[in-house]
Amino acid sequence: MDDLIVEFITETNESLEELDIDLVNLEKNPNDEDLLGKIFRLVHTIKGTCGFLSLPRLEKVAHHAENVLGKFRDGVLDVTPDYVTLIFESIDQIKFIVNTIEETGAEPDGNDAGLIAKLDAAYEGKVLLDDGTMKDSTGAETPSAPPSEEEKPKATAAPKQERNLAPGDATMDELEAAFANTPGMEGIVNPSDTAEEETDTVEASEEEETTPIETAEEPSKTDSSKTASKPKTNKTLRVSVDVLEDLMTMVSELVLTRNQLLQILRAQGETEFSTPLQRLSHVVSELQEGVMKTRMQPVGNAWSKLPRIIRDLSLELDKKIELIMTGNETELDRQILEMIKDPLTHMVRNSGDHGIETPAERIAAGKSETGTIRLDAFHEGGHIIIRIADDGKGLAVDKIKAKILQNELATKEEIDNMSMQQIQQFIFAAGFSTAAAVTAVSGRGVGMDVVRTNIEKIGGSIELKSEEGKGSTFIIKIPLTLAIVSALVVEAGGERFAIPQLAVRELVMVSEHGDNRVEYIKGSPVFRLRDRLLPLVSLSSILGLGEKHSLQKGERDPPPPTISADDENIDNTDTSSESTGFKHKSKNLYLVITEVAGYEFGIIVDRVFDTEEIVVKPVAQILKGLTLFSGNTILGDGSVIMILDPNGIANVTGNANMSEDLDAMQQQKAYKSTADKKTSLLIFNVGDKTPKAVPLALVARLENIKAEDIEYSSGQMTVQYRGALMPLIPFNPSVSIEEEDDKPVLVFADKEQSLGIIVDEIVDIIEEHVDIQLSAQQGGLLGSAIINGVATDIVDITYFLNSVNHDWFKDHDDTPYKSSADGEHVGDKKRVLLIDDSSFFRNMLTPLLSMAGYDVTSLEAPSEALQMCEDGVLFDVIVSDIEMPDMDGFEFAQKIKQDNGKWANTPIIALSSHATPQDIERGIEVGFTNYVAKFDKDTLLHTLSQTLTEN
Amino acid sequence: MAEAEESVNNLSEDFLTITVGKQLFGIPVLQVQDVLRAQDVTKIPLAPPEIAGSLNLRGRIVTAVDVRRCLSMPDKEAGQNSMSVVVEHNEELFSLIIDNVGDVLRLEKADFERNPGTLDPAWRDLSTGIYQLEKSLLIIMDVSKLLENIG
């Protein structure tokens, strides 16, 4: 059965039960306004809900009853006993229908013409006289609807209607059988008997229920009997939230006590308590789980109202909106659910109001008339992810910019330096709304900041992705529960702290020496974790424990492992001077790699202890200002420990450009776009003092080559390298090789080819945004950029590959299809898609194009590109290799053009080492705009800019 | 405190005497939940200096407040004893770290006096008034004010 209906029935049943008591009072006190109001509201609610759930029969009854009740309430009609009877009758009929729905999932057949006729008569106010006769004739009226025979007892029993709740509980068959067995309905049963019998025999003897007609003197008794018979239909039990909360608190305490016991046990070794304690521990865990379960509710509860909201919204705004919801059944802690309900509603409304365009706009934008809002909920690594995506117009960055300026949230210069992502984040600022007019729906500017606050309050995070014209996606990440969390206990500066396990990605042990070490960029610690450069924060320094920490080293009794580590590495203590701000001792440190809203960073701690289940308790009011802590708790050993808030730490890391990093990371993950991405650069020295840098990705290997190994063949320096001759080029031709023993050589390799460039000294590998500030005056250099705070020459490897070693491109022997003078690249960043199966060329061309001011996305295979095309990613120009496995460039171009897809009008430049006239002809035929030789940097750049201007 | 007075009687009130530095203070006895010996306190980094940390009192987390610091007195010397008085404020428990705890005195309300105008304003702010005892003066500590002034 539909969840909504189930909920409706449960609620209605509850209200009806409550009403039972009141109804009796109504009889005694027919003009009790409060009571009439109550009944009116209930009937009104039922009517309203029925319309929504499409339960026409119930709706009809409720509707007519409501009319009459409205008159009573307004005092237009006096409530006479006859009318009370009528009200009873209506309520009973509602009960009957509700019960049938509960049992069969559908409304009972038949109609309620008789009742409705009476109600209508009452509504006219003229029925007083014949009402008495109607009472008797009800039985005669209803048989016209054969299946609803059970209405008869109701009708007959009209004066004491409450009795008839029970019959509704019975199935039709049972009732019919009961009818057959019961001679007449007139038999009056002693009320107390009925009540008892009923309670005792609800399951078995439904017959009893068809006969009961009792006097009004015993109403409360019957009420209780009815309530007692309820469990038969209700498999669920409504428990007050307070009870559950109390239970939860107690379980939390129990968990803590269990932890303490286990701690003691651990210290004691094997004792007779071990076994029972283990068992206790298990039971407690199960109990904890069970109690947690009682707090879990499907997330669908939070958004059950959304379809209606969207429906109303689309009517109101004249839009066509489809709401797709998946993952309704994903369960979430009640408390959290309550807290995200409003933010969710708000965001869906926003999507409908701001996001989705009107049908006309949508058609104009080449979209389908109906906009879609998708709501997905699912589990992911201890979190619940809720995604709200619309395919509307997305965030209008220009409008946001204007609004930022208007609200003076940032200056124009600041905005100019911001990434799209950063600008978009402003919608989370307080009082920010870009809706031109305040609609009834949204646009009051109190939205997204509240949403974000609410979500962060429960330890969640919210991400935003939006592309103008394509739609927006909000991703909410929330913890499963708040009460008990698993936390990692760490030590820093002699104090212990707990970090919620949910935020912890991994733990890394770092040592002073060896591969895993902390490096410093201008004093800021960083760590290279599998190709990624993670910013680090030292917990002791952000908590102001830094200095104390190094002082305390001797005085406080440091934990044993620390001592030994210290002893071993005493000679290294002086290395701590190389860092600023963070005094790391010469011992093993631990990095807690933490992820907050997609932003990863490492927290440096001195020690890592266990993980422990902790009960998060709020910090004292007085400490609320400390954003680094999300709460505190009592550990198993009875000590109090502060719980760190990863969000707070992320903020403290001076992480102003978090969204930018986030952006970069996402892009990196998704499509390896180089926009905003840091490039790993190999820094080396040669000749003059200016450090040189080359994209690390280009360098295949670093070698040290002895001077005596260098041979000359036809004037070219070579070396025997891996069984082949590798040409060598001194970066600085004036340098003399002979006098030095060893020379570092950068080896570049592609396929079978390799080339070595001799340099003086390899300095470092640095990850940095490459932003060429000065263009090069000298061959072999692309220009200068500031890297690591120093002006550095960026090396143009193509120059060396090209100028010195003509054999390099022997595989790709081609001449430029089109050659001309240097083309100046104009305009803002154009998006270039580069497809080449050779990682060498990708790595070579990507920085080259980036440096020329393009936003480059490089892909390995055309299939990936086609996927992106399907995803709707757009580019200004595509540069594609021809020789590729699986699908070659020709086929790729054909595919793009023939499908008349999104990229059909995007110019494609072929990049090939094969440029025979036939190839070129074929290329043009399949849709290539231009043909460029692979290694011809200048022509490529020129062609690109020309192509872009033309198109 | 109003309720406290009434519940004892209308004429006198009981005070727990404590010493901080050399000064005798009184705290209305009904505000005192517990008197503890020196406890292990977990430091709270970045917290105001008056906050000594937090401790576990029978499963409840109690914020420890260094009263010496609240009163701008120098910190205790190492090895000096300390005691704690646990009070409730705004439904939260606080453990006031003081030097020593003395007797409980029942004092006549009639003897209660306003603070002398010359009292250090910082102290005047933290006390409701003064009793003249035989040997010394007893400053009645306004616990709520003391806690609210932190930070």
Question: Care to describe what's here?
Answer:
The complex is a heterodimer of chains A (about 950) and B (about 150). Chain A is an alpha+beta fold. Chain A has 6 domains: about 5-230, HPT domain (Four Helix Bundle (Hemerythrin (Met), subunit A), Up-down Bundle), CATH 1.20.120; about 240-295, Helix Hairpins (Orthogonal Bundle); about 300-480, Histidine kinase-like ATPase, C-terminal domain (Heat Shock Protein 90); about 485-660, SH3 Domains (SH3 type barrels, Roll), CATH 2.30.30; about 670-810, CheA-289, Domain 4 (OB fold (Dihydrolipoamide Acetyltransferase, E2P)), CATH 2.40.50; about 830-950, Response regulator (Rossmann fold, 3-Layer(aba) Sandwich). In chain A, about 40% of the residues lie in helices and about 25% in strands. Chain A contains 33 helices and 35 strands. In chain A, helix 1 (about 5-30) runs antiparallel to helix 2 (about 35-55). Chain B has about 150 residues and is mainly beta. Chain B has a single domain (about 1-150), classed as CheA-289, Domain 4 (OB fold (Dihydrolipoamide Acetyltransferase, E2P), Beta Barrel), CATH 2.40.50.180. In chain B, the strands form 2 sheets. A 5-stranded mixed beta sheet of chain B has the order 8-1-2-10-9. In chain B, strand 4 (about 50-55) and strand 5 form a beta hairpin. Chain B is globular and about 45 Å long. Mean pLDDT of chain B is about 85; it is low at about 1-5.
